[in-house]
Give the backbone structure.
Amino acid sequence: MAVNVNEVYTTVLYLLNKEQRGYIQPNEFNNLATQVQLDIFQDYFANANQLVRKNQSNVQNDTEFFNMFKDAEYKLYPFLKDVDYVYDANDGLWSSVDIVYNIGSVIATYSQSGENPTLNSISELCTKKEYNKIIRSKLTAPTKLYPLHVINKNVNIATFDTSSTLAIYPNPDSVSANVLIKPSNVYWGYSVGAVGQFVYNPTLYNPNTQPLGSLNFELDISEQTNIIIRILKYCGVIINNPQIIAVADNEIQQNEMNLKS
């Protein structure tokens, strides 16, 4: 279950206004919410690495509902996706329409004749430098049964989003991959009321329609408190209130210690 953006925004406003500490505009909130979601998403990987070490040391709790490594893995499920890549004959690269954060298993499919019409092979990741060395030997050169792929990072200069393209050797007929998708931007959509107030618009956000709707956090519902605390920290920076920053920092550090200890 995702975190409702309206619940987060109204809670943040309540906490800021409770002691007359300031106000955050919807557009500012949307920017902060998007950044906080990405911060938490990126933390999953560092936290999971530490939990793996606890598993290896047999100090991880494995009882039902209390296995922290499984909990961290579960929180990534909304971002897991099987995608089909599209080939561009101009540059010889395979690309995805989704903004891919990380690429897992890459399946290269080759058309075959005879009894086995297709060959689905798991491609092995390598760097361009490694590939240049591997192809120098007939024994290690990539084949349709054991293909290799190189990941190329591309940055959209308009949106600054990073996308990944694949160069696969030998070139297949089709490509699919298990990937992690970058979290979508968060939007608290609104219209302006009769007296100039902001009125929440719960319809699904669509950049091609007016008025714009809302888009919830994609993080698991268990992250709602963490989201609110982190947004409050950024709010403290914007309204120049060091007390809010200090309180939020202490809460974040305590939560992290509880997770990693």
Q: What stands out?
A: The chain has six helices and nine strands.
